[in-house]
Design goal:
mainly alpha, 2 domains
């Protein structure tokens, strides 16, 4: 789906611009090839943004994350800004407080927010379902969510109060619109139905 665009970013940005003097850049680059290194960085960043809200996100994100972690705080800050903007555009969610992401701690918190929204939410969602106590013998996740919106929101708030998430994740769970948070919860739950049922069986 995104392979063509990713490849265009990688190849297009790997071609040196004739009017640019790269001598100083070569001194600052890790391997003496600033154009190639810049293209790779942009490729990694585009991969993160473009695969958001897709089933391939986790695989592609984890593939590029080790490389992203090698970049300076200044470069990672650019990605953090892009992530927050992409979350706003794709999920219609904006943090209630400004996030400068001007240090490594806030950059890491931004990455954790993205991971939680996209995939690192299994334990949280399963735990919410456990305390919702639905009829697991006839569980239709979408129907349950439509009929029990307020109950779901109340339980999300209850579980949040007993969890230790960073402020960005807590802000997402507390301030995301009612319909939006239930919609997100429902969509993620559909992929976790086996996990949800196994929780009840084990308990």
């Amino acid at each position: 789906m995104f392979e063509d665009r990713d490849m265009k970013v990688l190849l297009g940005n790997s071609i040196p611009e004739p009017e640019v003097d790269y001598d100083d850049e070569e001194v600052n680059s890790e391997y003496g090839k600033p154009v190639v290194e810049s293209a790779l960085m942009q490729y990694f960043f585009v991969t993160v943004i473009d695969y958001m809200q897709t089933s391939e996100f986790r695989e592609n994100y984890k593939a590029v994350l080790p490389e992203i972690k090698k970049y300076s705080t200044k470069h990672q800050q650019l990605l953090a800004y892009s992530i927050l903007q992409a979350i706003k555009n794709k999920y219609d969610f904006e943090l209630s407080l400004n996030a400068d992401a001007n240090n490594q701690i806030e950059i890491n918190e931004t990455l954790e927010l993205l991971e939680f929204i996209e995939y690192d939410n299994v334990e949280f969602i399963v735990e919410v379902w456990y305390y919702l106590k639905p009829d697991i013998n006839n569980l239709n996740i979408e129907n349950y969510c439509k009929k029990n919106e307020q109950k779901i929101i109340d339980e999300i708030e209850e579980q949040l109060s007993s969890s230790n998430y960073n402020w960005m994740i807590a802000d997402f769970l507390k301030t995301y619109g009612k319909d939006d948070i239930v919609g997100w919860f429902c969509e993620k739950s559909k992929d976790l139905k086996t996990n949800i049922l196994m929780k009840f069986i084990k308990e």
